[in-house]
From TrEMBL:
Domain Glycoside hydrolase family 2 immunoglobulin-like beta-sandwich: 267-304
Glycoside hydrolase family 2 catalytic domain span: 404-462
MF annotations from Gene Ontology: hydrolase activity, hydrolyzing O-glycosyl compounds
Species in which this protein is naturally found: Penicilliopsis zonata CBS 506.65
Name this protein carries in UniProt: Glycoside hydrolase family 2 immunoglobulin-like beta-sandwich domain-containing protein
Recorded superkingdom: Eukaryota
Family as reported in the entry's similarity comment: Belongs to the glycosyl hydrolase 2 family.
PANTHER family named among the record's database cross-references: BETA-GALACTOSIDASE, BETA-MANNOSIDASE
Lineage: Eukaryota, Fungi, Dikarya, Ascomycota, Pezizomycotina
């Protein structure tokens, strides 16, 4: 079993996977709270589910696509600690993601709860367990199939998926595990540890290392070392100030002697790029006042700098303009839904995209398993991070979305492969954006919230149209190649309405623009076509699924798909853009407009697609 967070691993690593068979029960009458946490799930109607697969998937062993709002899980667990570890270490119950509201009990004692279906959370259960016996772990999940203020992404709320919406996911859908950690320990990115790796001019890594569990007044020191190719590059250390929970360190990442051949270098720093995804290995150590090691963590960083306010419409990586060749990747699999069937499957999807010449993806309407970014860092794959949107606006939506988007950005902030943030797509969740100042203000606030968390990356506020406040001008256009070429040939064409939506919101009060000034394209801002294509192949006449097969436009056969792809890609690359996102990498359920089938078989030769992308890169 592979550790679920390879991007942040302790030494020694003490963990136990809880993936596998659990007792499972639907609770359609919502009656279980009165007794099930105390006495366990009743035998009547109880079945077995394979975690971490949602009950709607075949891999779960249940494969039930009907609506069930309340579900329960239960299994036996053992404390990982023994002897003196019981007092010196803490036992964490860790979840990759549970959709949507999760409550947890150990032997009937309430352990904690979490709301948000796409981000990780931990519960400390040290006081509820002991090494001498097994314990009963009980979990209740509530996931409303019809609550449109709940962030859900592409999970459909109607009985039968259609068009661009798919089978819902409820309950545990990423890994669950136990982990024994030091009582005084280093925090990860979700807890505030930040590795700012874009200062190529000075060659410094600026780190904010969070320390958890320190007793008031205790002396602790944080040390950090960097290695490149096994060779020590630099060391930095700082005592933790008495009045704060983090230490600030600057680590010199310059390599002044015996530089490795075949890497990109700036100011003696080995920089990260798709061509050379160079990572420095980092070792973080936490020591007490007597120099005793309390905690040690291994992670990585890639030194690279993004710039998007260059005045010439370029998007730059390490000072060089790049034309981004991205593909829409929605993260679904035939038998496992939103859950990858394995860690290898995430790596395979990246390599399939790269085999077709794509340099990255817009990870669409999903906060992907962190293993995906682990491999993106190592394979040199550019990723736009995005949140799963809701479809109705209100105070409940605002609270839910702000919390979950904040957690998503914090989780992924230290990955060099992430190069842009997209909180919202096509005004989803903002049905009255043009006429409602409150909706506009919230979308504007998401821009500033994201910038407060991370000002090193651009923010694409509302991908596709109706931008309120954005660093990037992004547009969606599913026209055929001739019309798309005419649109992309000029900035005026790009800034015209798309799908009957204005590209930028206009003032609500023309006579009082201070109240709501509207927005417009910033001269010189990067312009990127972030959705186009969506071509499916006409189904065979005797295909039983043909009636549900869906695409934006339809090719006659594989040869026609390849020809259409070339014309569409060149229409965008030959225009007033600095990047593109083709829809999409693979088929998903009834939406069969992928370049690969749902089970990842290429519809057209990857090497031929790569030739098109290489030509587009040269032209763009």
């Amino acid at each position: 079993m592979e550790y679920p967070r390879p991007d942040f691993q302790r030494t020694p690593l003490k963990w136990a996977s809880l993936n596998g068979p659990w007792d499972f029960l639907f609770d359609d009458s919502d009656s279980g709270l009165s007794s099930w946490p105390r006495h366990g799930l009743p035998d009547k109607n109880k079945t077995t589910i394979q975690v971490p697969f949602a009950f709607q998937t075949a891999a779960s062993g249940i494969n039930d696509q009907s609506a069930h709002e309340v579900i329960w899980y239960e299994r036996r667990i053992r404390d990982l600690r023994s002897g003196q570890q019981v007092s010196s270490e803490r036992l964490l119950l860790r979840f990759g993601a549970v959709d949507y509201e999760c409550s947890v009990w150990v032997d009937g004692v309430f352990a904690g709860e979490h709301r948000g279906g796409h981000v990780p959370f931990d519960l400390e259960i040290s006081s509820l367990t002991s090494p001498e016996k097994e314990h009963r772990l009980t979990i209740r999940v509530r996931d409303s199939p019809s609550d449109l203020t709940q962030p859900r992404g592409k999970q459909y709320w109607a009985p039968i998926p259609e068009s661009i919406f798919y089978t819902p996911t409820s309950g545990i859908w990423q890994s669950v595990w136990l982990e024994s950690v030091p009582r005084v320990r280093l925090g990860d990115a979700s807890q505030g540890t930040l590795l700012r790796s874009d200062d190529l001019q000075s060659g410094l890594l600026h780190a904010r290392i969070v320390v958890l569990g320190r007793q008031a007044g205790a002396s602790v020191r944080v040390e950090m070392e960097a290695r490149l190719g096994g060779r020590l590059v630099g060391v930095a250390a700082s005592d933790l100030p008495k009045d704060q929970e983090f230490a600030l360190l600057d680590l010199d990442m310059k390599v002044k002697e015996s530089r490795h051949e075949g890497l990109d270098w700036q100011n003696d720093v080995a920089v990260w790029s798709p061509q050379h995804p160079t990572l420095y290995d980092l070792r973080l150590r936490l020591l007490d006042g007597s120099n005793t090691l309390l905690d040690e963590v291994h992670t990585t960083t890639g030194m690279r700098r993004l710039s998007w306010s260059n005045g010439d419409g370029s998007f730059r990586l390490n000072g060089q303009p790049i034309f981004q060749l991205l593909v829409l990747d929605q993260g679904y699999w035939p038998h496992t839904g939103l859950t990858p069937p394995s860690q290898q499957a995430l790596k395979d999807d990246i390599q399939r995209a790269q085999a077709m010449g794509f340099t990255g993806c817009r990870k669409h309407q999903k906060v992907e398993d962190p293993v995906f970014l682990y491999w993106a860092d190592r394979l040199g794959y550019l990723v736009w991070g995005e949140m799963a949107n809701a479809y109705a606006f209100g105070h409940e939506y605002i609270d839910r979305f702000n919390a979950e988007w904040t957690a998503a950005v914090r989780r992924d902030i230290n990955h060099p492969s992430v190069i842009a943030w997209t909180p919202v797509n096509e005004s989803w969740g903002y049905p009255a954006l043009k006429g409602d100042v409150h909706q506009r203000n919230h979308l504007r606030s998401l821009y500033y919230l994201t910038k407060t968390l991370d000002d090193s990356r651009p923010v694409n506020d509302n991908c596709g149209w109706e931008h309120v406040h954005t660093d990037l001008t992004t547009f969606h256009d599913y026209a055929d190649a001739a019309d798309l070429a005419r649109t992309c040939a000029s900035l005026d064409g790009i800034l015209g309405p798309k799908a009957d939506h204005a590209m930028f919101v206009q003032p609500l009060h023309p006579d009082n623009q201070q109240h709501d000034a509207g927005s417009r394209h910033s001269p010189g801002a990067p312009v990127i076509c972030t959705e186009f294509g969506g071509v499916n192949i006409a189904p065979a006449r005797d295909s039983p699924a043909g009636e549900r097969d869906w695409g934006y436009t339809t090719a006659l056969d594989a040869a026609d798909l390849l020809a259409r792809l070339e014309r569409l890609v060149m229409a965008v690359a030959g225009g007033h853009t600095c990047g593109l996102v083709y829809t999409q990498l693979y088929d998903i359920e009834q939406e069969v407009n992928g370049l690969y089938t749902y089970d990842r078989k290429a519809k057209i030769p990857p090497e031929e697609v790569k030739k098109i992308m290489q030509r587009a890169f040269r032209q763009g």
